[in-house]
Amino acid sequence: MKKRFVLLSLIIFAMATQWAQAQTPEEKIKQLGLTIPEVGQPIANYVKWKQVGNLLYLAGSGPKVYGKVGADLTVEQGYQAARDTGMEIIAVLKAATGDLSRIKQFVKVLGMVNATPEFTSHPAVINGFSDLMVEVFGEKGKHARSAVGVGSLPNNMAVEIEVIVELEEKKPF
């Protein structure tokens, strides 16, 4: 009887683990209580994304959070701004692919922080984006990354983030 209980427990654990891994990114977003925003129009003469082969290059995106981290904003506020930018990037990815499950992996991220010259915690700010990608996409969301400080960003945005992702091959029907 005890062996059956252990075996049944292992089967249930394996099924639960498999179910958790089988969740789509959209289901994870819903589970986190987040909503994918609408994709806004570019602010100049460029496109939000460009696909080359199986790589999808996203233009820089930023939040509706303004000011310099280290003067107007704390590290925590910068982290939240980067996380908000992550949701905007997810919206662009959804618009570009039609299905977030098509993302095979995040390849490279460039995170720019509008910061004072003496501010040095740029990675802690851009972690807001990176943490969200891993929460939503799991291992596929882990990426190579640069996090740098800049003297200014368009419209005084707190952060701007660029992304390159690899897409799964489209399956022929």
From TrEMBL:
Keywords: Signal. Transmembrane segments: none annotated. It comes from Algoriphagus aquaeductus. CDD domains: YjgF_YER057c_UK114_like_1 (cd02199). Residues 28-159 form the Endoribonuclease L-PSP/chorismate mutase-like domain. Pfam families: YjgF_endoribonc. Residues 1-22 form the signal peptide. The keyword S-adenosyl-L-methionine does not apply. This is Enamine deaminase RidA (YjgF/YER057c/UK114 family).
